[in-house]
Dehydrogenase/reductase (SDR family) member 12 (Cynoglossus semilaevis), 314 residues
Amino acid sequence: MNAVWFVKGLQEYTKSGYEAAAKHFTPGDLEVNLSGRSFMITGANSGIGKATAQEIANRGGVVHMVCRNKGRAEAAKEEIVEQSKNENVYVHIVDMSSARQVWEFVQKFTETHTVHVLINNAGCMVNQREVTEEGLEKNFATNTLGTYILTTALVDALKKVEEPRVITVSSGGMLTQKLNVDDLQFEKGTFDGTMVYAQNKRQQVILTQRWASQHKEIQFSSMHPGWADTPAVQLSMPSFHAKMKNRLRTEAMGADTAVWLAVSPSAVKQKSGLFFQDRQAVSTHLPLASSRSTPQEEERLLAVLEELALKFKP
């Protein structure tokens, strides 16, 4: 399965894959004025999150950057404002791996702000098993539980606005994984950070499908940015980065589909719950792969997340 996936990646996920796909993009799709619309982006201080924030700010949107590191977030904000000449860019300091912090942030945020579009972009790939202060495995806490709490806690606020959307930046790596509900925090066997990350990304795709069926008023989508040259890839996957360096996409290429899903009128015409690559809905499974989960397994995932979310709710 991994070999099939890697060959697919070399064709589609690289810079040349993006350039081939971009020939079929509708040119006017991103020619929009976003003034009056509010966008929350997690992990917005570098990589795909920052590139997404920049594109939205350039088009006049209100940008709420949700970041962990204040210094890096403020520096990124300055650059975004300088390039876009848009002053409506705000920084919120939240550690997405802390369930309690995520809850507290949403409760405070919704008292004073509206949000039209949520972009779940913050990601974590630690290669050694680490546990947060709340006792949760760090990748799972950030990528899955943090995303679950932020999204479900914002559902009521999103339902009050016109044309609400939620986009989750997943990864094509999830195609190599079948949901494993029996070991969500990787307490058994050898810990492999890349596999854990891909498993979390599969969980995000399933959550997107489930949310779409539960909340018809909101458009939910997940997407694969392709293989992009970002600080996160350099840090978490140094050998992959070194080997693939010249073939990787730019951050803007990686962000393109997230931006398209967040702002373009044609994206809203798509069915809710789908997984996108280069502005196209694509299958969430490789051909002939045994990566499909049962409805019962998916119900269990949701039940575990709901139980953990409530456990840390202030």
In short: Residues 138-159 form the longest helix (22 residues).
